[in-house]
Every structure is written in C-alpha cells, then in structure tokens.
C-alpha cells in the first residue's frame, strides 16, 4: 500500500500525505458436516488475523511532546452454525448463524492528511500526522430459508436474513488545544434486513434458467463515513439523531440468467457445440442527500434516491474439434444493450452531469481582443481576433459543463472481449 501526495501549490496550507505499508492478512477455517436422522448440521470456526503495520501519534495536536505508538494486530475467531431440516423428500428448512470479520478500506487506515477529500487530520506546518488506528468491522448474520423441489428440474427457494453491523467507520471531532482535529473512529452501527426469492431450472432440453429477487433495507447511525464531518465542519449543522439509509442500501435487486447449450449433433452445423449465457440484472438505485447550491440539506441524509438501471451481459463459446484437441473460441459482451447506468449524481440536482449552477447573464461578459493576455483562441469561434460577450458566455458554459462532468458517475458502457483456448 503506497501513496504520496503533496497538494501545493493548489492548497495554501502546506501539508503532505505519504505512506508505504505492508499489511498482513491471514485467514483460515475448519468446518464439519454432521448427518443425523432428520437433521443435517454444519459447524465451523473461522480465524481472521490482520496487522496494519502502521502507527499513530497519541496526541496529534502536540508533536513536540508526543508518543508514537504502533498498531496492534487484530484477530477474531468467528463461529458459523447451520442446520438443515428435511420436511419431505422435496422440501427442507434451513437456519444459518455466523459472525464475520470485515476490514474497512485500507485507505482509511493509512491516509494521514488530506483535507481535500476529508480523510482528515489537520496538519501544523510541515508536520505529518498519523491517522487513528481503525479496528475491523464485525457483522453478525441470522438467516432462515426454505427450499422446495417443484419437479425433477425446477427448485424454488425463499430466504429471510438479518445482519447486525458493528464498528462502522466514522470521522469524528477530537477536542484538543489549541486546535481540534478529526479522526476515523469505530463508532457507528448498522443493520441490514430483507428476503430473497430464487427459482432455478437445471440444464435440460438445451436450456437452463435462474431467477432471483432481493428486497433489502439497510439503515444505520450514519449514511457514510464522512457524514458527521461534513455536517459539522463544512455545513455547520447538527447531524440528525435518527437512523439513515446506508450508502449501499438498495431496495430492489433482480438477477436472471438464461443458458443455452447446443449439442455437437445440432442440425445447424455453425451452431454445433455453441454455448450461450445471457445474464440480466436490475438495480433500483442507492440513496444520496439532496442539497441546495449552498450545501444545505433539503431533507434528511440519504433521503433521495438514484434512478434504477438495467444491464445485460452475454457470454458465449464455440468448440471446434481438431484431432485429439478442442479449439475453443470465447466471447464476453458486457452491457450488451449499452444502457446508461448511473451510480453517482450531483446532490444539487440528482443528475450525473448537471450541477445546477444558474446560467450567467450576457452582461456579465465583455470583449477580449487578441492583444489581451486573457485572449483564448478556443473562445474565438469565428476567429476574428475578438471574443465578444456571446462567445465568452458560450465558452464559459462549455468549460463549466466539462468541469462538472465525471465519467465515474456512470458504469462502463458496451465492451467486448474475445479469446481462444485449447482443450485436450
């Protein structure tokens, strides 16, 4: 994990951000399956170990009289327990319980001073301040389900689940003299609950089908790691003391796949040994916080929601027998229909590219001749050596639109990948 950033001269307050770390993560598990009359039990234990290999100052506000401490390795032993109870020869009930050890983003652990993106501990002069030592997050899962074999080829299932999530990251203020500062801390809680329907048809008569629908509700004491900091430091408003929809909350998720496998003796020779898989997905959109142009909230945190989007992928392969070997041609078409998939928006408009800044009036712009140091050939559309107010306004709007455009607000569009392999 390596990073170096010096934001001078764009930021007047001189600071830099640097780390070069080699974290260790070790995991392992043991599991046993026990069959009893009318009951199948799975019992397991998972061991997770993580050493961030980093350090922090105990008192970042006073570096001259301070103590640098190293991070302590974190580990957890997580039990897993599952029961399956056959009801009939075609139906079974199941229950699962498990504890999970989750690492936060490693960037949050190592970033020391970055006021531009608020992973933030305020620096003094050229000093470098270590970040708080963040502990892993913990999740406890409860799951109850039923599976029913409708026919020899079709299986239907229903699963209800509940997750308790502890020690979520949050940036909080640390009161200190002469200056307070902000640190990541493990202080937030979340819970996720929902259910899932699924229907599976195994491959027969050259086709197979899979269909699943998930309804999910994810709430917590803060919608994102920076929310408390943004409300307190940037907008100077007290954060509401309610549960919020978490950033990853997504109400409806639909996934489906249709597979076709054409045999070697298929009547159309070009399609012999030709396999296809179409994967369809629909996502209803994640939440965001609506704000006005001054940054003030126009509702509760994460009270607005992005529009949903759909996606279709196509995977295919064609085998061609050559002597004792098979030549396999493979293809993967991602976002087959090239649909627009929005994952981030401007909070002022709910649009991925329109920030909402009002269009300036024409009288705000003047004339700029070619003799002026402010003259720009890109703004002189008719190339007469003079940028008039109309050209200046149009150039300003184009620059503003380009400034607010961020391709990361969209998932990638149509992509095609092809490959060839040899099978013996």
How is the topology of this model organized?
Elements: E1 2-6, E2 16-20, E3 24-36, E4 39-51, E5 55-57, E6 68-70, E7 74-86, E8 91-102, H1 106-110, E9 137-149, E10 154-174, E11 181-204, E12 207-220, H2 227-234, E13 244-245, E14 252-261, E15 274-283, E16 287-288, E17 304-305, E18 309-322, E19 325-334, E20 368-369, E21 386-387, H3 389-404, E22 415-423
What this model shows, in words?
Strands 3, 4, 7, 8, 9, 10, 11, 12, 13, 14, 15, 18, 19 and 22 form a 14-stranded antiparallel sheet that branches. A two-stranded antiparallel ribbon has the order 1-2. It has a two-stranded antiparallel sheet with strand order 5-6. 7% of the residues lie in helices and 48% in strands. It has 3 helices and 22 strands. The chain starts with a strand and ends with a strand. The protein has one domain: Maltoporin, Chain A (Beta Barrel), CATH 2.40.170. About 5% of the residues have low confidence. With 424 residues, the chain is mostly beta strands.
Main sheet characteristics: 14 strands, antiparallel
Quick check: average pLDDT? 83
CATH class: Mainly Beta
Do you know the CATH topology?
Maltoporin, Chain A
Q: Share of helix among residues?
A: under 10%
Estimate what percentage of residues fall within beta strands.
Answer: over 45%
- Quaternary organisation: single chain
Kindly name the structural category. Answer: mainly beta
- What is the tally of helical segments? 3
Please indicate the count of domains.
Answer: 1
- Principal-axes geometry comes out as globular
Which consecutive residue ranges, at least 5 long each, have pLDDT under 50?
A: 112-133
The ordered H/E elements are: EEEEEEEEHEEEEHEEEEEEEEEHE
Q: What's the Cα radius of gyration?
A: 28 Å
- What is the architecture at the second tier of CATH? Beta Barrel
Query: In whole angstroms, how far apart are the ends?
Result: 41 Å
Tally the beta strands: 22
């Amino acid at each position: 994990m390596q990073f170096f950033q010096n934001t001078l001269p764009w930021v007047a307050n001189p600071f830099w951000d640097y780390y070069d770390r080699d974290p260790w993560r070790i995991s392992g598990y043991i599991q046993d399956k026990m069959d009893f009359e009318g009951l199948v039990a799975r019992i397991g234990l998972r061991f997770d170990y993580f050493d961030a290999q980093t350090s922090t100052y105990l008192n970042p506000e006073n570096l001259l009289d301070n103590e640098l401490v190293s991070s302590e390795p974190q580990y957890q032993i997580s039990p897993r327990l599952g029961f399956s109870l056959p009801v009939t020869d075609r139906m079974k009930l199941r229950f699962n319980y498990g504890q999970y050890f989750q690492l936060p983003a490693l960037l949050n652990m190592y970033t020391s001073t970055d006021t531009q993106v608020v992973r933030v501990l305020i620096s003094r002069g050229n000093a470098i301040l270590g970040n708080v030592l963040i502990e892993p997050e913990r999740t406890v899962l409860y799951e109850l389900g039923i599976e029913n074999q409708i026919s020899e080829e079709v299986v239907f299932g229903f699963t209800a689940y509940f997750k308790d999530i502890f020690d979520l990251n949050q940036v909080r203020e640390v009161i200190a003299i002469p200056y307070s500062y902000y640190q990541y801390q493990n202080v937030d809680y979340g819970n996720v609950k929902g259910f899932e329907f699924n229907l599976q048809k195994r491959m027969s008569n050259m086709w197979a089908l899979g269909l699943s629908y998930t309804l999910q509700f994810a709430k917590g004491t803060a919608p994102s790691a920076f929310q408390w900091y943004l409300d307190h430091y940037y907008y100077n408003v007290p954060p509401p003391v309610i549960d919020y929809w978490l950033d990853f909350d997504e109400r409806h998720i639909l996934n489906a796949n249709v597979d076709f496998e054409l045999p070697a003796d298929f009547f159309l020779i070009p399609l012999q040994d030709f396999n296809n898989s179409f994967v369809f997905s629909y996502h209803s959109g994640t939440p965001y916080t609506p704000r006005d142009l001054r940054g003030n909230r126009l509702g509760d945190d994460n009270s607005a929601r992005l529009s949903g989007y759909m996606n279709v992928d196509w995977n295919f392969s064609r085998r061609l027998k050559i002597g004792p070997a098979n030549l396999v041609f493979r293809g993967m078409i991602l976002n087959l229909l090239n649909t627009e998939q929005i994952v981030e928006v401007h909070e002022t408009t709910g649009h991925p590219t329109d920030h909402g800044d009002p269009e300036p009036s024409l009288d705000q712009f003047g004339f700029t001749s070619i003799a002026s140091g402010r003259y720009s050939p890109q703004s002189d559309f008719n190339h007469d050596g003079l940028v008039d107010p109309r050209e200046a306004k149009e150039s300003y709007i184009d620059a503003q639109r380009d400034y607010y455009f961020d391709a990361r607000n969209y998932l990638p569009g149509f992509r095609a990948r092809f490959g060839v392999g040899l099978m013996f």
